[in-house]
Write a structure and sequence with these properties.
single chain, 173 residues, alpha+beta, Lambda Exonuclease, Chain A, five-stranded mixed sheet, 6 helices
Length: 173
């Protein structure tokens, strides 16, 4: 995997330059006034590419596959949060990129940035989460709405249709 990073020109430039590794940032979020903390994988600070980089491994580095992974794992929230952290601490809005390395040979590497729409979604979701955190902190109520309701879990349609599965009473076994 390391060789893959070294062979990719942008990844090599990001990790070869002067950088802060696992940079801890603390700040007070301006909207709700909540203390926040981030641990940035890498902040490239050489003159050519000031940039926040986050190293990820993935089954695929294809843009369409990684886009789904971003949504599924909330990476858009992470990127927006890190950008906001850098702005609060250094008073500079740094670009953010994922350096993604394929988990299996040939260990393909890509440097991927989220589009503005994805970052805006991450920002909005972070604001909602921080507002909910503040509300719960102030009220002392940490329960999700509807948390006390008992919900029924139905058997999936396909499970009832499997002919191989048959019920045998315990005394017949």
């Amino acid at each position: 995997m390391l060789r893959s990073l070294e062979r990719h020109p942008q990844a090599r430039a990001i990790f070869a330059g002067q950088q802060l590794i696992e940079a801890p940032l603390t700040w007070d979020h301006p909207t709700p006034g909540i203390p926040c903390r981030s641990l940035l994988d890498s902040v490239c600070i050489n003159g050519r590419c000031p940039l926040i980089a986050d190293l990820k491994s993935a089954a695929s580095v294809e843009v369409s596959d990684f886009s789904k992974r971003v949504f599924d794992y909330g990476y858009h929230r992470q990127a927006a949060f890190y950008i906001e952290a850098a702005k609060a601490v250094w008073d500079e809005e740094l670009p953010f990129a994922f350096v993604v390395v394929q988990k299996t040979p040939p260990y393909t590497c890509e440097v991927l940035e989220l589009d503005a729409e994805y970052l805006e979604l991450g920002h909005r979701e972070n604001e909602e989460a921080l507002s909910a955190l503040l509300r719960c902190s102030e009220t002392g109520d940490w329960h999700k709405p509807g948390w006390s309701d008992v919900k029924t879990v139905p058997m999936p349609y396909w499970a009832g249709k499997q002919k191989e599965w048959q019920y045998e009473p315990a005394e017949e076994r």
